[in-house]
Specification:
The protein has 387 residues and is of the alpha/beta class. The chain contains twelve helices and 15 strands. It folds into two domains: 112 residues, Alpha-Beta Complex (Aspartate Aminotransferase, domain 1), CATH 3.90.1150; 243 residues, 3-Layer(aba) Sandwich (Aspartate Aminotransferase, domain 2). The two termini are 40 Å apart.
Amino acid sequence: MSNLMSNYSPLEVTFVKGEGCWLTDSEGDEYLDALSGIGVVNLGHCHPTVTKKLVDQSQKLLHTSNVYRIDNQEKLAKELCGLANMDKVFFANSGAEANEAAIKIARLYARSKDIDNPIILTASQSFHGRTMATLSATGQSKVQAGFSPLMSEFIHINYDDVDEISKLSSNKDIVAVMVEPIQGEAGVIIPKDDYLNKVQGICKKNGWLLILDGVQSCMGRTGKLFAHEHNEITPDILCLAKGLGNGVPIGACLAKGVASKMLTPGTHGSTFGGNPLVTAAALGVLDVFQNTKVLDNVNEMSDYFKSEFDKKFSNNKLIKELRIKGLMIGIGLDSDKIDCTKLVKRALKDKLLINVTGSSIRMLPPLIITKQEIDTLVSKLFTLIGN
Ligand SMILES: *Cc1c(COP(=O)(O)O)cnc(C)c1O
């Protein structure tokens, strides 16, 4: 059939065009995209500002390598550091690579403290990527199955359980805690409001780095540009990707203070990382966040979704709970009453794009979604799980 390796099992649909919240397939049918290419095209498909940046840059220069200075990369670093209150950035090409850089920084930090076998705490059910280091960090056995030996430096703690981290305070080999502000791949798991604050408190007390994997939950997804802004904290390391380029592959590992000083010439690199084209796109993305009311729209549409959802589904026996922060949406279903494995295909038939993890529907619609589109979304959800 296809010459592609079998690691994916794509649905039988090919999209040829996208605009805002809508995708058009090769038959000309239109779909409401409530997944945004897994939290990537946060500003909607083919956002004109990003497209213009890409077109302009592609007519000038695509790539030079990091052997030379790259103007767009320096500009983007400055803007990102300003917005996130961080000191330095390393640009990668994906979320896994941004996290990989964070893990390497944690290792160098361990060296600086004469720790030979450093440990990083990560959470159960977490997702940090598919490279060897990041799949070892990931707290899901389905991601790790078949790939042992895993890297042994990760100890998995329960997410949203501060006591468990506290209890490990006496372990002198721990150098960092790495968590998602909200767990995405786990099905949108939102911790207690002060979870990150408490984790940071423990990190500070013990001299551990706080690494936030904001790959999915940042870039406006929760109604703030960065998810941890809700907690008013600044981590030591912040990893971004997905929405950063609105569809072009770019990742970033931002660091502050001591963590920002670990990488020295020759210790890390990437051929493509932060090239003129992808950084042009990310500059366009930041331009939109700073000069439009897109974050206000996230908060308004989040409230609107909640109220419309409650109206339609308050007596629904299939739904256990709605988990929502901004436009990061998880719907917990009763898997005894509904076959969750069929939902993605049923939604697709009704021209709705969603994701299902375990017994949860996950939705990450474009942040520019309108009331009318939320109405369409809720009505399609009703067709899917209403009764
Ligand atoms: C998607 C994701 C990653 C991995 O990103 P890739 O670009 O696929 O490597 C890492 N962490 C989180 C939280 C993610 O959601």
